[in-house]
Amino acid sequence: MTDILTGVFRTFTSKTDVKKDLTVVPASACSALLLGDSSISRSVLLLSAVTAASELGVRVVFFAQTQIQSLPVSLKKCVPSLSPESLKKIKFSYPRTLEELLQQVASLHESQNTSPTPPSLIIVDRLEGYLGGTHSGDKSSAAHLSALLCDSAAFLTQILKERSPSSAPCRLIASYRSEVDSDYAGGESSATDHILDVLDRYFQMRCTLDRDRSYEAAAAGLQELWHVYLSASSITEDCTTDSETRPAVAKEWQLLISADGSMEFKMA
Amino acid sequence: MRSLLPAVAEQLFRDIQKAYQETSQIPDDLLIALKFVFGPCALQALNLVDQHSVTCLSSSSGRKAFQVIGGSGRLYTCFVSCHYCPCPAFAYTVLRRNEGPLCKHILAVYLCQAMAVTQEESVSDQQMSAVLSGTALP
Questions:
Q1: Is the predicted pLDDT of residue A175 greater than 50, yes or no?
Q2: How many Å separate Cα B127 from the centre of its chain?
Q3: Which GO terms fall under molecular function for this chain's record (chain A) (predicted)?
Q4: Following CA atoms B7, A30, A172, A167 in sequence, which dihedral angle do they give, to the nearest 10 degrees?
Q5: Average pLDDT of span A47-72
Q6: What's the pLDDT score for residue B137?
Q7: Residue A123, exposed/middle/buried by CB under 10 A (0-12, 13-18, 19+)?
Q8: Is A83 a residue whose pLDDT tops 90?
Q9: For A26, which residue in chain B has the nearest alpha carbon?
């Protein structure tokens, strides 16, 4: 059992590291955009939600367009001791349209959502589902949604601090899969995805999940090997004055998914 | 809306705040600086300030948002902690062409804050949600 437990701890340790890194970013709230294939993004989002709820004991709101029927196998393997109590801290919401999502995010400040404690993590699965199929004029919709999410997280941070000055800020993680290039690996191709340009303006960090299809990964007996790059967004308001305090270099992890579905993070 | 602007703009708003507190007007050199930093937006924003177009809405939850009445009479909702405006200029100049960080409505919010001339209005939590999500009737 210990090897599984160490695996779990390692997973949690690296997850907490991610969060600690994010808190270094100097705005009041911490936001990250997860880029990659939607199935792996959803697993990482669920793992973040479960880690926040069970390890940090905080409330989480999880927005997704399609219902999550059951936790992915990989997650069950990672968190064998998952308790129903900690799952209760996660509120799953399934807005179907952009308008419904906007309304639900906009109402997060209302008392039924902030008592007894406000959420400390807002997660949105598959932003492209809400913004997809939109024409070029809908960069404004992407901006509205991102700005509303960031502003809501900033407000909840303020409420959390008022109730307990030592509390951590409310974080925001959303996943997005670029339609321009599904094998998106950062850098150049972002110029062609106008929605991504807009999202980058509001999300401070970018976490890119890039699948390693090399022979070595297959030879190591792994089901899947993903490179996880954490970096400051490329075009966050370019006039920001705090560029020195932003992490200068990208941080890299590896996400290993074994044949039995268990997930493990490693510093690369 | 902290640390979203270049240092020069931040300093400019602080100077305007100080000057306006002392003399109830913005001296010419600061007006010129404003025009230099923000271009044609500056004059339009000052017009909005003169017309008392900026209102800070707050609800009992403590949530705040700005509403700016545009030249056409349309209401634009701007957020407290990040730059967003539903106006066409923001979509075109800021989001599409990446020319500058804001539109005249957001600049008017900054100026009203610096000059302490923002109108205040209380709304219910539900009204605030509707305003933030853009579903409120103008």
A1: yes
A2: 21
A3: single-stranded DNA binding
A4: -130
A5: 85
A6: 56
A7: buried
A8: no
A9: B3
Decide which of B34 and A29 is more confident.
B34
Going by the DSSP 8-state scheme, the letter that residue A138 receives in this structure is G
What is the C-alpha separation between A197 and A143, in angstroms, rounded?
10
pLDDT at A42: 86
Q: Is A60 within 8 Å of A119 (Cβ atoms)?
A: yes
The 8-class DSSP code of residue A234 comes to T
Note whether B135 contacts A99, CB cutoff 8 Å: yes
Give percent of chain A with pLDDT exceeding 70: 71
Structural domains present in chain A? 4-267 (3.40.50.300)
Q: Is B81 on the interface with A (CB under 8 A)?
A: yes
Q: With contacts defined as CB-CB under 8 Å, which chain B residues touch A98?
A: none
Distance from CA of A106 to the nearest CA of B (A): 5
Tell me if chain A has a CB within 8 Å of the CB of B17. no
Place of tokens 């927005």: A63
Test B91 with A140 for CB contact under 8 angstroms: yes
Tokens representing residue B23 in the block: 């003399």
Tokens found for residue A32: 């990250």
List pLDDT tens digits, range B95-120. Answer: 988 888 899 999 999 999 999 999 99
Interface with A, mutate which of B14, B77, B84, B135 (most A CBs under 10 A): B84
Nearest CA in chain B to A159: B62
